[in-house]
Amino acid sequence: MHTAFEIIMGAYLFVLSSVSRLANWLTVLGDDPAHHYSLAAVVVTSLLLGLGCSLWAIVTHLRHRSYRASMRAALARAQSDVRFREAMISACPEAIAVLGSDMNAPLSYRGGAGLLQSCLDGPDAPALAAKLEDLLASGTGFAATVRTASFPQVAVRGCAVGSRAAVFFRIDRASDEPDHDFAAILDALPLPIWIRNRHLVLTWANRAFLAATGSATLREALLTDASLDRSERDLARTASEGRDVTAAKRYAVVNGERRSLSMDLKRLNDRSIAGFAVDTTALSRAEAQLQLSIDAFGAVLNTLETAVAIFGADQRLVSYNSAYVRMWHLPEAWLDAHPTFSDVLDRLREMRRVPEQRNFAAWKKEHLQQFHEAGQHVLETWHLPTGMSVDVRSVPYLLGGTVYLFRDISERLRMETTHQLLLNTQRALVNTVDQALALFGPDGRLRMHNDAFTKLWQFAERELAGEPHLTKIADLCAARIGRDGIWSMIAAGVNASEPERLGEWGDLARADGKALSLDVTRLPDGATLVTFTDNTDLAQFTETLLKPKVVTAA
């Protein structure tokens, strides 16, 4: 009230001073009495007007002060309510979303809006949406358990709170992994791991990175903006543009040794770049050694006269040697395209370099079956329409697939045929000789004989089959005819090292009384030819001639 009185008195004094100044101004205008009456009217009117304005100002001021006091009281109550609500929400462990009629979340606490959206995007969204509609429409509360992409179980409870619908979320973390100190885990890893910000400046690194860059502490690495390789920042720039870097091979000096590193970098959600490096030095050395072994293996294969072709588990040609190209006359450019075994057989058939078959499809299917049955292999001879004969063999490949070995045996077959023809000719020739002939090799085995030898020593052909040894023949003769020392002489002649001591041994008497003439001849190839001549009839005739005649008296 004191303030209001001061305001009123101030306004009254202001009006009086204004009226006085106005009167003085009007006096200057003239001394006419009429003017004095007019002046008095103006003064009175002004006084009344000033008094009214002062009263209006006082009332307005008082109303404004009352309104400000009520506003401060309302603000205090609202702040108290807010503090109480925040305290209640803090005491509640659940996430909360307050819904409007359009199922949005105008109010959200502890990520309630995000959880609501995750639940509505999960596999249980239809059932949850129906319950929320009932809650908004009729205030029907509910309790349910739903699944989301991030959490296997989320307990959802809805209820009406005044004119709003509140939804409470509680995440079941019983099956979740416990929280870990991921920085400590990354520090324990032997792989260098680091993070750069969007400006490609190092912001964090683990101990393996510090050791690889020679930094004593993380602070030192951050101050020097350490890096494993100068080009690593270029890779980080590429990753910052949204293009992930995978298995970028770089070389760096780690602990004074040049190492091969495989770097992977990826941009994170905050546009920083995370990277890690794997030491692939041992792998690189192993790959180099493997490549050297493969090259050496290929060089060895190319020196072989046997054609070699390796087909993988997918039946495609993996490797071949130069003999394979020479044998089958296949273009190397076509072979380098890794054709399948089926394609190779089809092409060889077009070139008439596979055996003629009445059912080629069945024959090819039989050969392709070995790729599906472990341990199955091929061992056969191909007689080609061109006249070539090929010995074909397949063995399982350790890395999966089959190794084919092709050997041209045409010349060998021709030589065997010629040799057999020669043997047959020789046998026919020696069978025309009346003397008994036996040819023993340097190893003492019977290589050849004629029919006269079989008849002389009373052998059956089956007993002389398979190139029996001289000792076995001697035992058979001793058991059948008796021991007479003839075969001991033959053994001495076959085993003798001085050819000049060999020759005609003269007449011998066999255990059964036959008179034989033995001749041992060393041949140029080291074999020994034994010749038996049956002189029994000649000996009997001579004995008859030499026998004295007895003269009887007439």
TrEMBL record:
Residues 182-227 form the PAS domain. Keywords: Membrane, Transmembrane, Transmembrane helix. InterPro entries: Biofilm_reg_signaling, PAS, PAS-like_dom_sf. SUPFAM superfamilies: PYP-like sensor domain (PAS domain) (SSF55785). The chain crosses the membrane at residues 7-27, 39-62. The keyword Kinase does not apply. It comes from the Bacteria. The keyword Transmembrane applies. This is PAS domain-containing protein.
